[in-house]
Design goal:
Layout (H helix, E strand, L loop, with lengths): L2 H7 L2 H6 L4 E5 L7 E6 L5 E7 L6 H11 L8 E6 L3 E7 L4 E2 L9 H16 L12 H13 L17 H10 L7 E4 L8 E4 L2 E5 L6 E4 L1 H15 L4 H8 L6 H11 L3
Antiparallel strand pairs: 1-2, 2-3, 3-5, 4-5, 6-8, 7-10, 8-9
Length: about 260
């Protein structure tokens, strides 16, 4: 559906909130949601639109963003609603440029240190009273449901798994489950496009729909892969040193990258 059509399809009360904004489709990322940058004369906003039949719900992200207010620098929820077909989530913009931008190639050591510091800050949040569980029981069950509903994109697997069927990967996911979990509050998708940097500092974090209490390797595995993909594996040791990893658990890195194939 073209942007102009979406501008006419949103609920009336949302249309009033965003009247006068120009729309730009954001295509980075693999979410079921369509994301639009709404450019205004004073400030910008982000609008996500997602079909109601999606396995993941924008209401999940809304609840997490609201819980995180005052705890971390995250977007503020301006509007949430749903109609017969879609969910709608309108949030503020975090000022800056996402960490995958090639502009950071001029000072990659600083970028890597910022990524590590940002993750340490997330993982330092107290999980006492946190209502969002993403432990292995939850994640494995979510993976199973995604297979049953045909929502696993086998064509988008990492190169080492191309050609393998999702159901066969699930057998591996089940059989290689780690025997312990080092539970912390995790972002759930700590990849470079979701970390925003401004004036040499991390200004905030976006895309919180998968956040919750999980093993810290949920985030470590994905950011390691993201660093390698965007800027090369040679930057991973600096990240690990800055974060404070001593004795990297390679089996957990493998496992949580395997887990990500289902999402």
């Amino acid at each position: 559906m073209k942007v102009v059509k979406w501008m006419k399809e949103v609920p009336h009360d949302l249309a009033e909130l965003i009247a006068g904004y120009s729309w730009e489709r954001i295509t980075i990322g693999r979410s079921d949601a369509m994301t639009f940058l709404l450019k205004g004369p004073i400030y910008n906003q982000y609008l996500k639109i997602q079909p109601n039949h999606s396995m993941e719900n924008l209401s999940d992200e809304k609840e997490r963003l609201e819980w995180l207010q005052g705890r971390l620098s995250v977007p503020k929820v301006l509007y949430y609603n749903k109609d017969e077909a879609n969910e709608y989530l309108l949030t503020t913009e975090i000022t800056g440029i996402n960490a995958s931008d090639k502009a950071y190639e001029t000072n990659l050591p600083l970028l890597i240190e910022l990524l590590a510091a940002g993750l340490k800050k997330i993982h330092s949040l107290s999980i006492e009273g946190c209502p969002f569980s993403k432990n292995l029981d939850v994640k494995i069950e979510e993976a199973r449901k995604r297979i049953e509903n045909g929502l696993v994109d086998e064509g988008d697997f990492d190169s080492v798994r191309i050609g393998i069927k999702a159901k066969d990967l699930f057998d591996e996911l089940f059989s290689k489950r780690p025997t312990n979990e080092d539970l912390v509050f995790t972002h759930g998708d700590y990849c470079l496009p979701n970390i925003i940097i401004n004036e040499g500092k991390v200004s905030g974090f976006i895309d919180w729909g998968r956040a919750g209490i999980s093993d810290r390797y949920q985030d470590l595995a994905l950011v390691i892969r993201s660093i390698a993909y965007n800027f090369g594996e040679n930057h991973i040791p600096l990240f690990l040193k800055t974060y404070g990893v001593t004795g990297l658990d390679e089996l957990k890195i493998f496992y949580y990258q395997l887990m990500d194939e289902f999402f």
